[in-house]
Each structure stands twice: as structure tokens, then as C-alpha cells.
Design a protein that fits this description.
alpha/beta, 46% helix, Glutaredoxin
């Protein structure tokens, strides 16, 4: 588990823009199941989260269609919430960072770490925008 002081600015990068920080399994399940569309980013302290995942998901919101719910859990900090999110992402193996799009509680699009690491935030954003245009 990472100290809160270390992850606070990484959480705030998303929460300051309207992402809801989920810390319990109940919050994850309630928010995913109750929304028509939701994007969920499993945040992380790694460099690809800072350089690619967080900027990519933020840039993806500059689009005509976006998910109704913007959600985040933090791997290595919010264990219960992260574990619950990963259950909803089966059959994909756990990875962080990762970004999932849900529609009516069902996983419809997934970016795993290997889709994020080494790719530009612009490419990640474009991938998510295409998914939003299809599902939102």
C-alpha cells in the first residue's frame, strides 16, 4: 500500500476533473450497475499511468459523446475497490493502469496496460473516443 501523501496528487489529477474516486467494492458495483455508461480507470503510480493513461482518458473527454459516469480506483491503495473492479473486467487479467468502458453494467471496451504502455496519450484518447462514439 502506498502512503496517501504520495498518491493524493495522482488521484486529484482525475477527481479535479469530475472523476469519482471509488474506495469500496460497494461503491464500484453500485456505480457501474446504476449507470448507462461509465468509464473506469484503474490508476497507478507507474510512469505509464502518468504519461499515458491519465492524460489519455482526460483528453478523451473532449468529444461529443462521453460516458455518463467517470470513475477511478487506485491500484495499490484502494484494494477492495480495485479487486471489485477487476472482477467486472473478467476475462481480462488484472493490470494497472487500465481503462474500461461499461454500458448498462457490462464491459464493452478495455484498454489493458499493454495497450497503454509505450503508446501516446493521444492514441489512447482516440481509441477511447471511438469506443464512446459507439457505445455512448
Amino acid at each position: 500500500m502506498y502512503p496517501f501523501e504520495i498518491v493524493k496528487p495522482m488521484k486529484e489529477e482525475l477527481t479535479s476533473l469530475g472523476f469519482k474516486d471509488l474506495t469500496t467494492a460497494k461503491e464500484v458495483n453500485k456505480n457501474i450497475s446504476s449507470s448507462q455508461t461509465a468509464v473506469l480507470i484503474v490508476n497507478s503510480v507507474c510512469g505509464c499511468a502518468a504519461a499515458n493513461a491519465r492524460p489519455g482518458v482526460i483528453q478523451s473527454l473532449i468529444n461529443d459523446k462521453i460516458p455518463l459516469q467517470l470513475l477511478t480506483v487506485f491500484a495499490g491503495v484502494d484494494k477492495e475497490a480495485t479487486d471489485a473492479a477487476r472482477v467486472l473486467m473478467v476475462p481480462f487479467p488484472p493490470s494497472s493502469p487500465c481503462i474500461a468502458l461499461f454500458k448498462n453494467g457490462e464491459l464493452v471496451h478495455m484498454l489493458e496496460r499493454h495497450h497503454i504502455e509505450g503508446r501516446s496519450s493521444k492514441l489512447i484518447s482516440e481509441n477511447l473516443k471511438q469506443a464512446y462514439n459507439e457505445y455512448c
